[in-house]
Amino acid sequence: MVDRIGKDLAEHLREVTLAVYQRGAELARTRGIIIADTKLEFGRTPDGQILLADELLTPDSSRFWPADAWQPGRPQHSLDKQSVRDWAAGTGWDKTPPAPEIPEHVVAATRDRYIQVYEQITGERWA
Asked: Are 80 and 64 in contact (CB under 8 A)?
């Protein structure tokens, strides 16, 4: 990355990324959620200004684990899209389009996890 965008900008993006993660992780921790990891995507405007280019700290871009169920050394219960990944891996799909249709029970369970983590982190009911 340094070779592609330069050392100063790479360091700046690293600092911003870590600050965003730390703030989100602190907030989630107070609500009983571990943010195990996340991704941030940045872009540039035509005049070179850096901007956040995608979603931020969602179940699609992060791994959320309930803190009260976390145990080291084993797969974790996730409140994110990991169950969809696990389902897809179990189908034998080789990631060549088209993807297999996701069964309704997988969709419903994923939706329930997304709602659970939303409500737990925000303290608000999903409408």
From this structure: yes
